[in-house]
Amino acid sequence: MIIGDAIALAGRSLRKWVRNPTAIMPTLFMTIFWLVLFGSSFNPTSMIPTQFGGTSIPQAVISQIRASMLNQVFGGAATYITYLTAGIICSVVLFEMAFGGTDVVLDRQFGLLNTLLTAPISRSSIYLGGVFQGLTKAMSQALIAFVIALLIPSGLILGRGFGLLNILGTFAAFGLLAIAFSFLFTGIALSMKTIDSLIAVVNFIAFPVTFVSTALFPLSSFPSWLRPFAEVNPITRASDAARILVVNGVLSSAQLWALAIDFGYLLAFVAIFGAIGYFLARRSLKSE
User: Fold this and answer.
1) pLDDT score of 121 more than 80
2) DSSP letters for 128-182
3) Is the pLDDT of residue 180 over 80?
């Protein structure tokens, strides 16, 4: 009964979303900006000097250095954009979850939430409805971002042997990240009275979480004091899991073990954020 009510509430929000095609435009622009502009302009492998002491460095040597950098620093990715794609998709998921709560706040301001609270449905279904609609939006946006990365020039290059299990595993990593953040931000949104308050809170959370992660650069680029925070960041774990599957295709036993650890972390974050989100939602809805 609770699940059925939650799906019905999520369906209502999703119908409004589908009828508004401009809702996906921010994700398209964000994905294109980060992959095309940032991925090309700030590509570390393009910053290799072509001259040293007035002497030109042979192109073969530059190519060798670039290949070595990609292999040692960026996990064997064929291009920097290949490395970047997983992190950008995780960031898209995070921001979709963070700002998706505006619908929940608007429902409160327009009185719909009070109507739902007087209806013969469980209050848990209100919370889960927000989680379901946020998860659906995030995974749709993740799929769009993945396709964009494949289509742009010199974009995402899949590893040899990349197949159905790889794509399922990749989107499972994105999905677990989306579930965790949907739990958290839906609970936060139900606790907010105004959109201004929600935006202030989610900006305070979302930007540090994005930049203290391996979404844009590898863990080795972080100072030693910041590295422990980046290591336990859920975006780091989801990005690393997706990169293992995308970059390598066929996985070795060591890569499978690393993948299992990343998924273990993500499942733990789902449990933790789920408990936090449910507590916030229950306290907020109980006080109405």
Assistant:
1) no
2) HHHHHHHHHHHHHHHHHHHHHHHHSTT---PPTT--HHHHHHHHHHHHHHHHHHH
3) yes
